[in-house]
Design brief:
Jelly Rolls, Arc Repressor Mutant, subunit A, 2 domains, six-stranded mixed sheet, three-stranded antiparallel sheet, 35% helix
């Protein structure tokens, strides 16, 4: 059983993305991505047509809403031109605070069928319509959570030393935060920091830093900067490293992402 598909498709003039350090909401073109590994818990929502999802080497599943755990390799496709995507940074939500509709965040399988999914799908469509009516609205995480869940999702109580590092990564993801830099900020030895970071956050430091840096690209999606400029602005040492990393994360070349975002309205909170 799959969630019902809302009837109203969206047009090219209705493409938008709102970004804050903790959440991303996007309605726009999907393109033809290869395998992607996003560091967010990712919700794919049907707008023009049902979503087809494949997790790892598993079978393709057709649905109107799917939830993919963070860092899970997957492919997504859609016969329509547009798709909705909600990304939630897992380091910003307490383990006990995930809504039932997002249970896949703690599993290794995609989550494509839950009684709460039709409600979440409707709310994503309603949020999109609200943002279209308010062309300059920039929603922080708390406001997005209120729209979708009726309350703010609880934040985790990380060790204060690790919390300082996480805050730095969120505030300045483009900076070249080496593990040595992060350990110094946490006032820990290198080995102790790496161990404590993984225990607190659930993923190695380097893996999270790679994701936060790749996530920076979203803020440049509809800009006029060259790829080289974007690579340097987002903290990559060169355009080759930039292109390789972006393709690993998003399953698309950076130039294809930017080309498909020319008519996208980007709101950065």
């Amino acid at each position: 059983m799959t969630t019902p598909l809302p009837a109203r498709p969206c047009s090219a003039d209705e493409r938008l993305m709102t970004i804050c350090p903790e959440r991303v909401f996007y309605v726009g073109l999907l393109g033809t991505p290869a395998v992607r590994q996003l560091g967010s818990v990712t919700v794919y929502a049907a707008f023009d047509a049902p979503v087809r999802l494949r997790l790892g080497d598993g079978p393709w599943v057709t649905t109107s809403l799917a939830v993919v755990p963070a860092y899970a390799p997957h492919q997504v496709a859609c016969d329509g031109r547009h798709i909705g995507v909600l990304g939630i940074e897992p380091d910003t939500v307490a383990a006990h605070g995930w809504p039932a509709a997002l249970q896949a965040q703690s599993s290794h399988t995609a989550f494509t069928d839950h009684p709460d999914h039709p409600t979440l799908l409707r709310r994503l469509h309603t949020l999109h319509e609200h943002l279209l009516r308010e062309p300059c609205l920039q929603l922080p995480a708390a406001a997005l959570d209120q729209w979708l869940w009726g309350e703010c999702l609880p934040t985790p109580a990380h060790d204060p030393r690790i919390a300082r590092v996480l805050q730095g990564l969120r505030a300045q993801p483009h900076e070249r935060w080496s593990a040595d830099d992060a350990a110094a900020l946490a006032c820990l030895s290198f080995s102790r920091f790496l161990h404590l970071f993984k225990a607190e956050v659930g993923v190695p430091y380097r893996k999270l830093r790679t994701w936060k840096r790749a996530r920076c690209l979203l803020s440049y999606a509809n800009g006029n900067s060259t790829l080289t400029s974007v690579a340097l602005d987002t903290g990559y040492p060169d355009s080759t490293h930039f292109s390789h990393s972006i393709r690993q994360v998003y399953g698309l070349k950076p130039r294809d992402i930017l080309a498909g975002s020319r008519r996208l309205r980007v709101l950065v909170a």
